[in-house]
Design a protein that fits this description.
Elements lengths: L29 E9 L3 E8 L2 E8 L4 H14 L10 E7 L2 E7 L6 H6 L7 H20 L2 E2 L8 E3 L5 E3 L6 E2 H6 L2 H6 L4 H8 L9 H4 L6 H17 L9 H15 L1
Helix pairs in contact: 3-8
Length: 260
């Protein structure tokens, strides 16, 4: 039996809708249990939804911009349907409790699996994860979406070790941030530092050299992050961890110049 969808199934702003993902949940339908992950922008809890175990992502919303980001992520997630992407089951899209309800995957994320569990994948495991993750990324890029934060910590594993890309808080439609180019930003009279702060996002050691040079994210920068992640999968070593942040950035930049 599926979760009941209450009509009209739109968010309170009217910008998000879905024929299959409930966007309003009565409080009696879900429970939040213990936290299983914490980040700067959200806390993820194990929970239940109509008796089913789920992962509940509760964003930390301190400003109106944070709320805007929640709705932007919800809009995007409602359109994604791929086996290599974490499955959104439901959402609660009105105050005071903004939440995403995802399928709960049995294994930890890839970073935890490699570095906490000290898992050594077989060649077959590595090839399977690489191929399935590549297909998920291709699916996003075919939709014009750039993830902008591909890394092992954002790759969930199920009981069969199949990967599921998650954390779409930084994802953007390529056309959206192409339109807000550095030239357009300058012509508006805004300082360029604000442009770079808005667009140079991600995690440093997985960030493509061109992004560090303050270019816009593209599908190619996602592929670079994917490649660094797969290198970590194959070697079990986190890249550049013997270097300070400034040295990491310089090392990535030098590697880029050698490949030009």
């Amino acid at each position: 039996m599926g979760i009941q969808i209450l009509e009209p199934n739109t968010c309170i702003r009217g910008c998000c809708s879905s024929p299959s993902i409930p966007l309003h949940l009565p409080p009696s339908s879900y429970t939040l249990l213990s936290p299983i992950a914490r980040g700067a922008e959200s806390v993820v809890f194990e929970g239940t939804l109509d008796g089913m175990k789920v992962a509940v992502k509760k964003p930390i919303l301190s400003t109106s911009e944070d709320i805007n980001k929640f709705y932007k992520e919800l809009q995007l997630l409602c359109k994604l349907h791929h086996p290599g992407i974490a499955t959104l089951i439901a959402a609660h899209a009105k105050p005071p409790n903004y939440m995403f309800f995802f399928k709960l995957y049995e294994s930890p994320n890839l970073a935890q699996k490699l570095h906490v569990d000290e898992w050594t994948p077989t060649l077959s495991d590595s090839l399977m994860i690489t191929m399935q993750l590549a297909k998920a990324l291709q699916y996003l890029h075919n939709l014009g979406i750039v993830h902008r934060d591909v890394k092992p910590a954002n790759i969930l594993l199920d009981k069969n070790l199949s990967p599921h890309l998650t954390h779409f808080g930084l994802a953007e439609y390529k056309n959206d941030f192409t339109r807000v180019s550095i030239e357009n930003w300058k012509s508006s009279g805004k300082p360029t530092g604000g442009f770079h702060k808005k667009n140079m996002v991600g995690t440093l050691i997985y960030m493509a050299p061109e992004v560090l040079k303050k270019d816009l994210h593209t599908e190619k920068s996602d592929v670079y992050s994917f490649s660094v992640s797969i290198n970590e999968l194959l070697t079990g070593v986190v890249p550049y961890t013997d270097l300070r942040a400034e040295a990491q950035q310089q090392t990535i930049g030098r590697a880029s110049r050698r490949s030009d």
